[in-house]
Amino acid sequence: MKLLILNGSPRMKGTTKRALSLLEESISLNKNDAEIDFYDISKMKLSACHNCDGCRRNGGTCVVADDGIFLQEKIFEADTLILGSPVYWWGITAQLKMVIDKFYSKEEIYFNKKMVKNIGLITVGASEVDNPQYRIIREQFECICRFLNWNLMFSKDIATRDKVDIMENDILMAEIKDLWKVI
Question: What span, in angstroms and rounded, lies between the C-alpha atoms of 101 and 4?
Answer without folding.
Answer: 17
